[in-house]
Design a protein that fits this description.
This protein is an alpha/beta fold. The strands form three sheets. A seven-stranded parallel β-sheet has the order 5-2-1-6-7-8-9, sandwiched between helices. Strands 12-11-10-13-14-15 form a six-stranded parallel β-sheet, sandwiched between helices. The chain has a two-stranded antiparallel ribbon with strand order 3-4.
Length: 411
């Protein structure tokens, strides 16, 4: 890790939409670094308190601390419909004055396509302060028409204001290059979750998972295929169900229990999935409701294979979580983490997004070797996580700050 003297301590302002379970612990980790003085500016209070989530269909309150261990402030949001799903959902007129008053040496923006972020990017009052960008967009899904082309050229113009781009992975780095960002301004800062929390929870999670599967009625010894997330269009859960139904007819191994499919989560597709499963519900297809963060290690320990068949997924941090519990994965070609985390036949497999037959073939190939083969791939997946940790992300951020130090000193 880069060493810095007390004289080179830098004040870094982080601007982000709302408290997020993946980032809060990283901010706490960053706050312990001797060369950094950190303050996080939140633009919306979702995640900080219990709130109804219309996509999950019930109230969500995260059961891990998201605001401990680092300095932070909530900037009032005047949006009529606050949220991170549309441009005007983050409308915080007090953000620029608050940043100016704190006098940061650099500002790290998580995202850019919001009204408040645009105010920071275009602000004359902040024009001498270097900006860094962290996002996870990619070009794995290429929409057609003139609209996307126009947006790309707008990004080319906006991105000229940034001094550094913190790429979470290969696809994200390619996205920046496609917008004219020079290679010298792109720094690898990998996407990560709290590896330590998941890995320390693994022994207890194994025992809890055994009891939970018994409670759900999953046959002992059956290979468990997991879908964990919102049951919504973008995640394409029906693709997985259709592929699984085909696999049931193909993968029959004498003396072994057949595979089962476990959906964990809720959403608009729940009833349709149950209807399509028919009398297989409770036999080979199982449903469990939303599980909070402290129970997710148990969820991953209960499965032998995680599948993320999304139509579009900027990264897919559920993959990081599952790999921390030594679980291999199957992801679609539109999942951003695929090029980085999923090596075919080593940590998992990748299939063409939307191709149900290819997904079925991939599932069948994954299951033919039994739980023993999946366990071996799971260990490979666990080892892969060593490069995708809060420590590795911090090691990527510090050199980016070092490279813009001349800008910091002259600002």
């Amino acid at each position: 890790m880069t060493k810095t003297s007390p004289l080179s301590r830098r004040r870094i302002a982080i601007v982000i939409s709302h408290p997020i379970q993946y980032y809060g612990p990283w901010f706490a980790h960053l706050a312990t670094q001797p060369g950094i003085e950190l303050k996080v500016f939140y633009l919306w209070d979702s995640g900080a308190e219990a709130r109804f989530d219309p996509e999950f269909g019930h109230t969500i309150a995260w059961d891990i601390p998201l605001l401990e261990g680092y300095d932070h402030v909530f900037i009032p949001n005047r949006s009529r419909r606050p949220g991170s799903d549309h441009f005007r959902g983050l409308d915080n007129p007090g953000l620029v004055p608050a940043l100016e008053a704190w006098r940061p040496d650099a500002i790290l923006l998580f995202g850019f396509a919001y009204l408040s972020h645009l105010r920071v990017i275009l602000s004359r009052r902040l024009s001498r302060i270097p900006l860094l960008l962290r996002g996870d967009s990619h070009n794995l899904v290429r929409p057609s028409g003139w609209g996307p082309t126009l947006k790309r050229w707008l990004r080319v113009l906006l991105f000229r204001r940034f001094s550094a781009f913190l790429a979470v992975g290969r696809a994200n780095a390619d996205y920046y290059r496609s917008c004219g960002v020079p290679e010298a301004r792109i720094q690898r800062v990998p996407h990560c979750v709290d590896n330590q929390r998941f890995q320390l929870a693994a022994p207890a999670a194994e025992a809890e998972a055994t009891a939970w599967k018994l409670q759900l009625g999953i046959p002992q010894g059956a290979p468990v295929i997991l879908f964990a997330g919102k049951l919504e269009d973008q995640k394409r859960p029906m693709d997985l169900l259709e592929a699984f139904l085909r696999v049931q007819e193909r993968v029959v191994v004498a003396g072994r229990p057949g595979p089962v499919l476990l959906f964990v989560g809720s959403g608009a597709w729940h009833e349709r999935l149950q209807a399509r499963s028919g009398d297989r519900v409770g036999q080979s297809v199982f449903f469990a409701p939303f599980q909070n963060q402290t129970r997710m290690p148990m969820v991953y320990a209960a499965c032998d294979l995680l599948v993320l068949p999304s139509e579009s997924e900027t990264w897919g941090l559920a993959v990081n979580e599952a790999m921390n519990l030594a679980t291999p994965v199957i992801v679609s070609s539109h999942v951003g983490c695929g090029p980085d985390l999923v090596q075919s036949g080593v940590t998992g497999w990748i299939f063409r997004a939307g191709d149900v037959e290819e997904l079925a073939q991939t599932l069948a190939g994954a299951l033919v070797g039994g739980k023993e083969q999946l366990s071996a791939l799971g260990l490979n997946a666990l080892h892969r996580m060593a490069e995708y940790s809060y420590e590795s992300a911090t090691r990527g951020l510090l050199p980016a700050l070092d490279r813009i130090s001349p800008e910091i000193r002259s600002s």
